[in-house]
Amino acid sequence: MAKLLRKPKRNPLSKGVCIVHDVKEGNTPLEYVGFSVIDLDKGAVFEEMLTDQECCAVILTGKATVTAGEQTFESLGTRETVFEKVPTDSVYITKEETYRIQGETDTRVALCYAPGLTKRPNRLLSAKDIQPEHRGIKMNQRSVHNILPDSLDVADSLLVVEVYTESGNFSSYPPHKHDQDNLPYESLLEETYYHEQDPPQGFVFQRVYTDDRSLDESMAVENEDVVLVPAGYHPVGVPDGYTSYYLNVMAGPKRIWKFHNDPAHEWILDREDS
Questions:
Q1: Measuring CA to CA, which residue among 134, 47, 60 is closest to residue 99?
Q2: Bridge partners of residue 142, in order along the sequence
Q3: How far is CA 233 from the centre of its chain?
Q4: The CATH number of the domain where 83 resides is what?
Q5: Which pick of 46, 74, 184, 187 has the fewest CB atoms within 10 Å?
Q6: Cβ neighbours of residue 151 closer than 8 Å, sequence gap 6 or more
Q7: In the chain, how many domains are there?
């Protein structure tokens, strides 16, 4: 198994709460990004106290109530499956805060972590404020929901986005990277990809590689897998007949997304028919 590929594991945490993924210090090469996926039965409660990290709780499916500090956000979540392709609700939670998530239905929640540098207001990131964005042409097309983009001054470190790529298309393509602290040309951002496929027996291909090939892993990524991107280019290819969903979490020393395309493949952007 590739060292960057993480398979889902259903580890019970408490009654009605299961940890599906738990990428954290001690089991990851990532310094800035942490990531978890939890499943909550209806009525079940997950609670966590943050120390020096901020968190974005993304309601992937189902409905939940999120309490952060003295604020309570009820009936969050907009879909029964991510492939309804509508934006969902999320909550930004600042560092040094205790928060609580209760499932109003069976619920899946992604917890996205990064260094918290200041105390900020907890904030609802409402689905109604997200406008789906279309990117790419030809066989390089995808739809994007910007949950926590760098244009939104809400967080210290976190960037969160979800992406749909249709059958036969490539995404994160041409291959790009953001592993150098060299602004304004490129920013240093680690990344995680949480993948789902429709139908669920599908798979996608993802390659993570650096210019010098000191890192070069190609993976067949199945439903509910997570891929870690500590550095390098990281394109995704979707086979015919399947639709890809992934949730990206990025963080680094500066909360700016500035990427650099692989020069060997950037020529596709300059075609006369583009």
A1: 47
A2: 135, 165
A3: 16
A4: 2.60.120.10
A5: 184
A6: none
A7: 1
Residue 104 DSSP label: S
Q: What separation in angstroms does the CA of 210 have from each of 44, 87, 142, 175, 216?
A: 43, 32, 24, 10, 7
Confidence category of residue 271, pLDDT binned at 50, 70, 90: confident
Contact of 95 with 119, CB cutoff 8 Å = yes
Q: Is 84 helix (H, G, I), strand (E, B) or coil?
A: helix
Q: Are 267 and 274 in contact (CB under 8 A)?
A: no
**Domain boundaries, position 64:** 5-270
Is the Cβ–Cβ distance between 144 and 135 less than 8 Å?
yes
Per-residue tokens: 128 = 């109604």
| Other beta carbons less than 10 A from residue 87's beta carbon | 20
Q: What tens digit of pLDDT does each residue of 70-101 get? A: 999 999 999 999 999 999 999 999 999 999 99
